[in-house]
Design brief:
heterodimer, A: 545 residues, alpha/beta, Rossmann fold, 2 domains, 6-stranded mixed sheet, B: 271 residues, MetI-like fold, elongated
Chain lengths: 545, 271
């Protein structure tokens, strides 16, 4: 084995026990014989959809399997030692010393009752690598390197006192503090806003370069991994699809699946011309009960029938609150909403059945948007029964009709949500909304929880349905690629106010205001070296800093 | 589906108790008030478990006692669950002053020990079966209310409940079609536990002389009648106590099994 090989996996097989509802537990194979080599100081990107086995493989680099997961075959050599079958004592000295881990959710990973510094240096102390003053000095140096504000004092804060992006960088500092040989980054920027993601990504990249640490970088976003990785391994269903230099994967993918990943978001949508609106939101201001802070500030937008208004912004910008105001869940304190020529009652109780029927909603998490104890037939059939009084065979026929519309076909009406895939669940939610024969559908981040290829399918379906049924969409998203793909009009929200609004071509056309510029430039592009360009270009600090 | 051995024991014993309770009239060798033997007779072929303080057959009285004890406990548990669950769900779904009002009322009732309230009410009113069931059901419904409200509050914030509201559904649909099916499993397990408490409660009341009145009998009452026998080394008082104990344990085993089974459905380990 060559000297500079840090990690070598051969024929790795990983199994797990699954507990399908109502059936006996069974063994499933998550990873089918994957080979992987990582040299010192290099970064390997692991990419794939959910269920591809990327996190499972990543964790196996420290010979660890999450609950019920077993590493059953093959070899894992780290620093020349076989670690798959290593005993608990050997593993204890290995984990947190030679290999460390950065997880997706820093907020869930930090102990809220302890100061950040104490947690960042904990592994270095417990392994006896450093004395406390030395470890603290190293942590402060890492805080500075990762671009955290007040690096000398931030360690004395508690996890809730810093922002999500900052905490993610603190966790990176925690992983780097014991001077490991290998760091496993498991979707470290996925949960962050797009503008914050850039900061964290740049910080991680710089830290990797300066400390000469090797890394496994796990993500589902090819554009993100292209910024940090030397090599990329594409995984699907626990098997390797393609392995190559980053540049080659991005520009000249060999396998069809990789090509599909690279060309995702290739949807082109012609902007429709302005016309008389079906929904008018006029000077709407709203606040939550018991607070003295306006979450919506004087919002005015219009949406013509059969068109799509995309509402974009970071988390906390008030996008979803706007949806709650329009649906009547949060009555505005001032302003009014006009729908189809009639003024909407500000609260839900005052709305007519037609008001309710004509404005439907689709949620981000299809899982929680469907009652797990109702069949697909009931979920889609209920609006038919409720609004149109359809019963029995007539209702069943219309349910099947709708299932055909969402390209799901026969045999789904009797299934429960747990028996559907993520994309199918979201399709059923779309069918439920369509069943009401609405004029406006509010889509709240409907594709954010889905894998890119599945999300693409959902967007195409929504566009087809719009062309067919002439339904308008109010499309809430933080993903600008999605916005480009489907919108006719765009409203950019920032801290509860609309900062830029108009036809898509106008909004996406320079000159930009500072915030829109920040937002637009932060969308990762499939291009090596894009990260450096955008950092140099930035005029405005991201909201997370 | 594999049933663990503890649950199997629980199911068998619970089934036996129910069978005996239902067919008491045919199974009991003697009538309930029949003084067929001498005082404190030992176990024999004519009186399998001996006789009590006035010469009545203990086996027969245990069998009739099972009928009354289980009937009263079951009826009051059903009452407490229907009432408690409905009000708990309503409070969670409606929120606002309905929730506040009901919750504070329940706090008020729970602040006073149930036994004391029951004793006061039963001293004023004549303790017949209906009054007993009503008072026990009402007092126990406060605990069911707490549980159902907590369970339903978790479910009421789910997107599918919001979707139902946005559709314009009435409260009854939300409660019975959206929330109840998802809240059922913890409630069923709780039903088993509350049933046991009801058995203990009615036994306590009868022991204190305020529960089941002669000529009817139940296990708590038998304990009271025969307690003097303990000092004379007679087993008559221990037998009903043993019956209460074994019923409580067997129902508990079943409830435990239901609880682990339903929680494993939510993604926990099967066992």
């Amino acid at each position: 084995m060559a000297d500079d090989t840090l990690l070598a996996m051969k024929g790795l097989v990983i199994e797990a026990t699954s507990y399908p509802p109502g059936e006996p537990p069974k063994n499933v194979t998550l990873v089918h014989g994957v080979d992987l080599t990582l040299k010192r100081g290099k970064v390997l990107g692991l990419i794939g959809e959910s269920g591809a086995g990327k996190s499972t493989i990543g964790l196996s680099a420290m010979s660890f399997g999450r609950g019920g997961v077993r590493l059953t075959g093959g070899t894992i050599h780290l620093n020349g030692r076989e670690i798959r079958l290593a005993d608990a004592k050997a593993l204890r000295s290995l984990r947190g010393r030679e290999v460390t881990y950065v997880s997706q959710s820093a907020i869930a990973s930090f102990n809220p009752a302890k100061q950040i510094m104490e947690q960042v240096i904990e592994t270095s102390l417990s392994h006896g690598l450093m004395q406390k003053p030395e470890a603290e000095a190293r942590a402060r140096a890492l805080f500075r390197k990762l671009g955290l504000p007040n690096p000398d004092t931030i360690g004395s804060r508690y996890p809730h006192q810093v922002s999500g992006g900052q905490l993610q960088r603190c966790m990176t500092a925690m992983a780097l503090c014991p001077k490991p040989d290998l760091v496993i980054f498991d979707e470290p920027t996925t949960a962050l806003d797009v503008t914050t993601q850039i900061d964290v990504l740049a910080a991680i990249k710089e830290a990797i370069r300066d400390t000469q640490v090797a890394a496994l970088y796990i993500t589902h976003d090819l554009a993100v991994v292209a910024q940090v990785a030397d090599e990329i391994m594409v995984l699907r269903h626990g098997r390797m699809v393609e392995l190559g230099e980053t540049g080659q994967i991005i520009t000249a993918p060999r396998e069809d699946y990789t090509k599909a990943l690279v060309s995702v978001r290739g949807i082109e949508h012609q902007e429709k011309p302005p016309s008389a609106p079906i929904l008018q939101v006029q000077n709407v201001t709203a606040r939550y009960r018991g607070t003295n802070f306006d979450v919506l500030k004087n919002i005015s937008v219009e949406l013509p029938p059969g068109q799509t208004l995309a509402v974009v912004g970071e988390s906390g910008s008030g996008k979803s609150t706007l949806a709650r105001a329009i649906t009547g869940l949060l009555p505005p304190t001032s302003g009014r909403m006009v729908f189809n020529g009639r003024t909407l009652s500000p609260n839900l109780a005052g709305r007519t059945k037609d008001d309710l029927r004509e404005i439907q909603m689709i949620y981000q998490m299809a899982d929680t948007a469907m009652n797990p104890r109702q069949t697909v037939g009931t979920i889609i059939g209920r609006p038919l029964e409720f609004y149109f009084g359809l019963k029995g065979a007539e209702r069943d026929r219309r349910v099947q009709d709708l299932l055909d519309h969402i390209e799901m076909g026969k045999g789904f009406a009797d299934r429960y949500p747990a028996e559907l895939s993520g994309g199918q669940k979201q399709r059923v939610c779309i069918a439920r909304a369509l069943a009401a024969n609405p004029k406006l559908i509010i889509c709240d981040e409907v594709t954010s929880a889905l894998d890119p290829l599945v999300a693409d399918g959902i967007l195409k379906l929504l566009l087809n349905l719009q062309a067919e049924a002439n339904v308008a969409y109010l499309f809430i998203t933080h993903d600008l690629a999605t916005v480009r793909a489907i919108s006719d009009k765009i409203a950019v929200m920032f801290k509860g106010a609309v900062v830029r609004y108009g036809q898509k071509s106008d909004v996406l056309e320079p000159p930009f205001d500072d915030y829109t510029d920040l937002l637009l430039s932060s969308v990762p592009e499939m291009e090596v070296g894009w990260l450096e360009k955008v950092i140099a270009h930035r005029k405005m600090e991201s909201a997370g800093n | 589906m594999r049933i663990p051995i503890s649950a199997l024991i629980g199911l068998t014993l619970t089934g036996m108790f129910l069978f005996v309770a239902i067919f008491a009239q045919w199974l009991a060798p003697y009538a309930v008030g029949d003084s067929s033997g001498a005082q404190w007779e030992g176990m024999s072929a004519t009186h399998w478990l001996g006789t009590d303080t006035i010469g009545r057959d203990i086996l027969s009285r245990l069998i009739f006692g099972a009928q009354i004890t289980i009937f009263v406990a079951l009826a009051s548990s059903i009452l407490s669950f229907s009432l408690g669950a409905f009000l708990g769900f309503t409070a969670a779904v409606q929120g606002g002053w309905i929730d506040q009002g009901l919750s504070r009322l329940v706090d008020l009732v729970m602040a006073v020990p149930s036994l004391i309230i029951a004793l006061v009410v039963l001293t004023i009113m004549s303790p017949n079966l209906i009054v007993l069931i009503l008072i026990m059901g009402l007092l126990d419904s406060t605990r069911v209310f707490r549980l159902s409200r907590a369970v339903a509050a978790d479910i009421a914030v789910m997107d599918y409940v919001e979707a139902a509201r946005l559709r314009g559904e009435k409260g009854t649909w939300v409660i019975f079609r959206e929330i109840l099916p998802n809240a059922l499993s913890p409630l069923v397990a709780e039903f088993g536990l509350r049933f046991i408490f009801a058995v203990l409660f009615i036994s306590t009341l009868s022991f204190l002389g305020l529960g089941i009145q002669p000529p009817l009998t139940d296990w708590g009452g038998m304990l009271q009648e025969n307690k003097i026998g303990i000092t004379q080394g007679k087993s008559a008082a221990l037998l009903p106590a043993f019956a209460i104990l074994s019923l409580a344990i067997s129902v508990n085993l079943v409830a435990d099994w239901i609880l682990t089974r339903t929680s494993s459905l939510k993604g926990g380990r099967g066992g």
